[in-house]
Specification:
It is a single chain. The protein contains 8 helices and 10 strands. The chain is 28% helix and 32% strand. The chain is globular. The strands form 2 sheets. Strands 1-5-4-3-2 form a 5-stranded mixed sheet. Strands 6-10-9-8-7 form a 5-stranded mixed sheet. It has a single domain, classed as Nuclear Transport Factor 2, Chain: A (Roll). By secondary structure, the chain is of the alpha+beta class.
Length: 302
């Protein structure tokens, strides 16, 4: 059973990656007035960390660099392998977005705040090239962003159950204990994704109920199993090697892991929503990890 489950999961993830799947947190997004932001530190200092992260991403739409200069630590650590590290690297990609073809838009779907860490789940439109992604920002005690991770993949059509990579429940239930959510999801990852106790799969769900946003999957636990069995026929190996972060607020938890898929080093971002102590909904973004020689910084993906 253990080997079979890992093979099932290999097939699932392989097809997801080959289809450039992506998916994950939405609390009602507060609109940030870019004109107010440009007034400087007096306005920025009133923002929460989540509001700062939202304003930073939304600044790609306007080209206003003032928010980046206010909230980014000059020497902040950049883990996006296609961007130079530090404030200057961020300003370079902002300039590139403004000088590109068409208009850049950022639609933020979900927000999570766990201590000094903020997660945004968004859809980017870079002049017609639509991407879905997770951005993770680490703040210091002074409200400056000191580190950034992300994972992006192309937007695809809805899956066979009618779900897109980003629709579904958006508001966080803050009545749910964040640490319990983190523990449940972490144990699920160990037992099922790492294959330590695959026979426990059914125990993590409420009967057959399961909402799936992976573009190649369908709803229900039985549908999940059937799809995995079918995908196992592809014979593509997948291994989660290490989980680097589990970030949770209320009933949502994002799991950031690295592994290998089809012979390629891979980053896995899995977002889960729990309900009544069971896993109820899943989004993900899966992307290749660049070789170190091709990266524009030396900070590595994680």
């Amino acid at each position: 059973m253990k080997k079979t489950m890992k093979t099932w999961i290999a097939g699932l993830t392989a097809v997801a990656l080959l289809g450039a799947v992506g998916t994950v947190y939405y609390v009602n997004q507060k609109k940030i007035n870019q004109q107010q932001i440009s007034k400087g530190n007096s306005e920025v200092s009133k923002m929460t960390n989540t509001e700062k992260a939202v304003a930073l991403l939304k600044s790609f739409e306007t080209g206003d660099t003032s928010i980046a200069k206010e909230v980014l630590n000059k020497d902040y650590i950049q883990h996006n392998q296609t961007v130079a590290t530090g404030l200057d690297g961020f300003l370079q990609i902002m300039e590139g977005a403004q000088n590109g073809q068409g208009t850049t838009t950022v639609e933020i779907k979900r927000q999570i705040e766990d201590g000094n860490t903020v997660v945004l789940h968004s859809v980017y439109d870079f002049g017609g090239q639509k991407m879905v992604g997770f951005d993770v920002f680490k703040f210091d005690d002074n409200g400056k962003i000191t580190e950034h991770w992300d994972n992006l993949s192309p937007v695809r059509e809805a899956n066979r159950s009618g779900h897109t990579q980003v629709d579904g429940v958006t508001s966080i239930d803050t009545n749910v204990n964040s640490e319990q959510t983190k523990k449940l999801v972490s144990t699920y990852i160990d037992d099922i994704i790492y294959g330590k106790n695959p026979d426990k799969l059914d125990s993590y769900f409420d009967g057959d109920n399961y909402i799936q946003h992976n573009a190649d999957m369908v709803d229900t636990v039985s549908g999940f199993k059937a799809s995995l069995e079918q995908m196992a026929q592809y014979g593509i190996n997948m291994d989660y090697k290490q989980t680097h972060q589990v970030i949770a607020q209320g009933d949502f938890a994002l799991v950031i892991s690295e592994g290998n898929l089809a012979g390629k080093d891979t980053a896995f971002y899995d977002l889960y929503r729990v309900q009544n102590g069971k896993i109820a909904e899943h989004w993900d973004v899966i992307a290749d990890i660049l070789p170190a020689a091709d990266a524009k910084n030396t900070n590595e993906k994680f």
